[in-house]
Specification:
mainly alpha; Growth Hormone, Chain: A; 16 helices; disordered N terminus
Length: 433
């Protein structure tokens, strides 16, 4: 696979124009737009920033600020749920004004400013405001950024493009926690150093987005006729909500929401592993690093596979990997083997579903509704996972950790074939276009 790294937009990604499918493409060669790669670098820098803070935030809130675990539970729920509330708004505004780059820029810039706020704010109210601003920024930027990826990619290569972007994104997610642990190792109580470093990475990402990334539009710019004194140009297409709320998209949203309700938080899986023995407890802070390493190793191959055999198939099979994660965590397997397998399966699940879901939503919507469609799918999943995490916490309390995860695994085993039947009409040549 060849990845284009040219900084100059090619004929298929001139600013203001979505790419056209080439008349002839050499067999076996797939190119990824430099715009996609640059957006991946922006996301990588932003994830280094955000994950370096996330890795130490629980300790900082409870140990340094002295807040209770109840306060931390509220803040953690806020961290997970706020972005879902503004994703559709970000996608809708991006579609309406047809300025995906600058809507995404606002989101990235807001999150960067929030990092700076950590240096000056302390106490529950200040941390709440900082986390809210950070997550609102994430919610605003996600769909417009994915619209840019869609607009800069060929339809037959969309899964690969999202795979490349998610790979770079998850390099940042793996590096961020390691950076935080290294800073604390060298500078004890160096939380301010982490916050300052986090802001620096976020600011660099915002600058690259603003200066380097072209504003590739989701629809072609309309030009007036030569004698444009009395322009007869066609009117701007109306935004059609039915594209997002009916037909194939409704099936996708229903299936993604149902499966999202059975996707418990990664932290619960890690807590089950921790309870198994000393190995898991020793490496608990770096579990999500291992998951992200597996994710970034598989994101491009599974994205390319989705382009080849169908994105719906890969999306459904990704939840089989999630099922394998639950079963492996609950069954009496050796500690090291269970930990490694769980991290691999969990990384495979994210690699097969995260970017692939965005590619599916983009494929099932029109250029005028790409941002809103992607945001709708991501919002449904985010809200479903938030409800899943809350519900699983109660289930764990009621029946215990192994029983609770086996119950969810059993329901997921039934839900996967139901989702496959629901999505069956999407298993067509259009799914691979």
């Amino acid at each position: 696979m060849y990845i284009s790294l040219s900084n100059k937009p090619g004929p298929d990604e001139q600013e203001g124009t979505p790419p056209a499918a080439p008349a002839h493409r050499p067999r076996g060669v797939r190119t990824v737009s430099s715009t996609v790669v640059t957006l991946g670098i922006v996301s990588m820098l932003t994830d280094i920033s955000s994950e370096s803070v996330s890795a130490i935030l629980p300790l900082y809130i409870t140990g340094v600020l002295g807040l209770s675990t109840i306060a931390f539970g509220f803040l953690d729920g806020l961290y997970q749920g706020v972005s879902a509330l503004v994703r559709i708004a970000g996608g809708y505004v991006s579609d309406r004004v047809d300025q995906p780059k600058w809507v995404a820029f606002v989101g990235y810039a807001l999150a960067a400013v929030a990092r700076l706020g950590l240096l000056f704010g302390s106490g529950f109210a200040a941390i709440t405001a900082v986390i809210t601003a950070d997550r609102v920024g994430k919610g605003i930027r996600t769909a417009p950024r994915d619209s840019l990826i869609t607009a800069a990619s060929r339809p037959d290569n969309l899964g690969t493009s999202f795979g490349v972007h998610r790979t770079l994104d998850n390099i940042g997610a793996a590096v961020g926690p390691l950076l935080a642990f290294f800073i604390l190792l060298v500078v004890p109580d160096g939380y301010d150093t982490i916050f300052a470093t986090s802001f620096a990475f976020a600011a660099i990402g915002v600058l690259i987005l603003g200066i380097v990334v072209p504003n590739v539009r989701t629809r072609a710019r309309r030009t007036a006729p030569a004698d444009a004194e009395r322009s007869d140009a066609a009117p701007r297409p109306r935004f059609d909500w039915s594209v997002v709320t009916s037909g194939p998209m409704r099936r996708l949203l229903a299936a993604a929401g149902m499966l999202g309700l059975l996707t418990i938080g990664d932290g619960f899986v890690y807590l089950v592993l921790q309870s198994r023995g000393g190995f898991a407890a020793q490496w608990f802070p770096l579990f999500y690093v291992g998951t992200n390493v597996a994710f970034l190793a598989l994101a491009i191959p599974l994205g390319a596979l989705a382009d080849r055999i169908g994105r719906t198939r890969v999306f459904v099979w990704g939840h089989v990997a999630l099922l394998a994660t639950y079963v492996t965590a609950a069954l009496p397997i050796a500690d090291i083997a269970a930990t490694v397998l769980c991290l691999m399966f969990l990384g495979a699940f994210y690699a097969a579903t995260d970017g692939v879901l965005a590619a599916l939503a983009a494929q099932l919507t029109t250029p005028e509704t790409h941002g809103t469609g992607i945001a709708a799918a991501q919002t449904v999943v985010a809200l479903a996972r938030f409800l899943s995490a809350v519900g699983f916490g109660f289930l764990w309390y009621a029946v215990g950790r192994e029983n609770s995860i086996l119950i969810v695994a059993g329901v997921l085993a039934v839900a996967i074939p139901v989702a496959a039947v629901l999505l069956r009409p999407l298993l067509s040549t259009r799914d691979r276009s």
